[in-house]
Write a structure and sequence with these properties.
The protein has no helices and 17 strands. It has strands spanning 2-3, 9-10, 14-15, 18-19, 25-26, 31-32, 42-47, 53-60, 65-72, 77-79, 87-92, 98-103, 115-120, 126-128, 135-141, 147-153, 160-165. By secondary structure, the chain is mostly beta strands.
């Protein structure tokens, strides 16, 4: 049982191997919502700051890689990336207007590295945030939205935690 302010409660049934199939409920509005299907090849998913949209990556046949999608509570989906190579690990900016994610868009086809990119969700404008040989993954905005923290790894070395201003303009600090 999950409680909400003012004493309203919502029941969630479990079965041994996970959540019971059913209709998800937005706890803010107490209305049913439509989530992306787990059978659709979704690997990673992040909820928008206002809880009304979801960002996820899914394998796509026309690029044979993972691309990013945005889904609204009404069920409308919009494909955001169409790049050669994988895109994923999306995280929302605190204001919900942009996302940061890893991409191999700017990497050579035979390379195994990822750079970080920032996308304005209203315009689709994309900006490269990091570059180079390391694999930059797991990006997350700081609570005030001024920095992006991420893990940077070279080959088999242990990853280092790094930060970079979300507006770019300087090399990451690790």
């Amino acid at each position: 049982e999950m409680r909400r302010p003012r004493g309203r409660a919502f029941r969630v049934d479990l079965r041994q191997d996970g959540w019971r199939a059913g209709v998800p409920i937005d706890l803010r509005s107490a209305k049913p919502v439509s989530l992306p299907s787990s059978q659709a090849g979704i690997v990673e998913m992040a909820t928008s700051p206002d809880g009304r949209e979801w960002m996820f990556n899914r394998a796509h046949t026309d690029t044979t890689t993972f691309d990013l999608y945005l889904r609204t509570a009404s069920g409308t989906e919009r494909r955001l990336t169409h790049f050669r190579g994988d895109d994923g690990g999306a995280a929302w900016a605190p204001d919900g207007k942009s996302i940061v994610f890893y991409t191999s868009q700017w990497s050579p086809a035979d390379a195994d590295n990822y750079d970080l990119a920032v996308m304005d969700l209203a315009t689709g404008a994309l900006r490269q945030l990091t570059n180079g040989r390391p694999a930059d993954r797991g990006p997350r905005f700081s609570p005030d939205g001024t920095l992006v923290g991420f893990l940077r790894s070279y080959d088999d070395a242990e990853p280092a935690f790094c930060t970079v201003p979300w507006v770019g303009g300087r090399q990451p600090t690790c």
